[in-house]
Amino acid sequence: MIKPRTPPGVMELLPRDQIAFQRMLDAIRRTFEGFGFLPVETPVMELSEILLTKSGGETERQVYFVQSTGALEKRDEGLPELALRFDLTVPLARYVAEHEHELAFPFRRYQMQRVYRGERAQRGRFREFYQCDIDVIGKDALSPRFDAEVPAVIAAVFERLAIGDFTIQLNHRKLLRGYFEGQGIEGEAQFAVLRELDKLDKRGEEAVRATLAGDGFGLADAVVDRLMAFSKVRSQGHDDALAKLDALGAGTALFEEGRAELRAILQQLRALGVDEARYALNLSIARGLDYYTGVVYETTLDAYPQIGSICSGGRYDNLASHYTKSKLPGVGISIGLTRLFYQLREAGLVGTAASSVDVLVALLDEAGLEHALALSQRLRAAGLNVETQLEARKLGKQLQYADKAGIRFVAIRGEDEAARGVVAVKDLQRGDQFEVADGDLPEALARARTFREGTLA
Q: For 247, which of 109, 199, 385, 447 is 20 to 30 Å away at the CA?
């Protein structure tokens, strides 16, 4: 007999934990749709030549290829035809390029699907995980005003999830690159310095400083000092962010362009009514991916900085240059929800949810079956989620079952209740019981459900 076990690097949940996870997905979806984003799903498999076009390096070593048993028998040299997607960005690029003439631009898409990476198995790292992405894609050009709308969406998502105070940290690649130009750092060296600065939180200042001054970079101590001081700039509050930008002094044309765009983003966030405690400048953020060209975002939980970024992204110049000659600039973000949920559960910030079933209709004897079925249908017609006991059992057993399953209400109709035209309702959450006229039960339970619903329900 084979021992049942899940493969490493996947998250498999029991039903009540799955309900909690699903409610987070639902809350994110409602928020995305509230800002006018449209749903897209792409196949879990992509053609390998499409998927690997812009990867390389570590990402390519983490790709899962897909082979049928027949293809394995006939395998020639070279890569398999199909591979599992490792993010949602490459499939989006292919999707937009393929359907370019059918889409309305700016194209506002959200996508919430699983992706697959051959991560080394370790606690909190997943090989299969959900990503929740939004992107706005323009044709030829895209107004920088969308760069401010995206953090407003981030703020709305995490306000709705209610998992604690958070900060959306902002920086701008033009500001960074313009500052580097002013320090004599040009061309490809800028990207190498960006990648090192992006490691400040992980490696620490001394390690990054030593790397930048070492043989690989050879930057003068005075330049490294200025880079470190620049990277330490943080703001607290809207006015302070503007003041910190002003205090940077004059710079190159690219630097000034980035500063002007950041100022406009800050002003638009205020106009959108985003709480100024929810966003701040952090000039150490670079984002490691080279295709970011404008604003970049990283979101952290204030009380749990060790969790790291819970949502990140930014502006890029051309999404699908490998698949079309059209210029398709965009801005977007991604939430790695599986990892986030796992870490929130570890930190005690999300718990096991109540059942998605609102009420269990008990069955005390065979004579009550027809009434139990009819009552269940009336409750469903009132918008309630109902489970019906289809085999008569002792009431205690049915209550134990409901309690273990997380069902709050149990509707009970024995001989006494039937004679008086009422239904007894056991509230397992409060530990009390009340009676309702048979015809009034749907409305009474619908009110009770509405009263108990929380942020994510």
A: 199
Residue 296 shares a structural domain with residue 392: no
The answer to whether 172 and 292 are in contact (CB under 8 A) is no
Q: What is residue 73's predicted lDDT score, i.e. its pLDDT?
A: 66
- List, for residues 332-384, the tens digit of each pLDDT value: 999 999 999 999 999 888 988 989 999 999 999 999 999 999 999 999 999 99
CATH code at position 290: 3.30.930.10
pTM value is 0.90
The tally of domains found in the chain comes to 2
Which of 375, 304, 313 shows the shortest CA–CA distance to 340? 304
| 292 & 156 share domain | yes
Do 232 and 267 fall within a single domain? yes
Co-location of 270 and 372 in the same domain: no
| 313 falls within a domain | yes
Residue 52 forms part of a structural domain: no
Residues 237 and 266 grouped into a single domain: yes
Let me know whether 146 and 253 are in one domain: yes
Give the structural domain span for 157: 15-40+86-113+120-346
- The answer to the question of residue 101 being in a domain is yes
Per-residue pLDDT tens over the stretch 239-262? 999 999 999 999 999 999 999 999
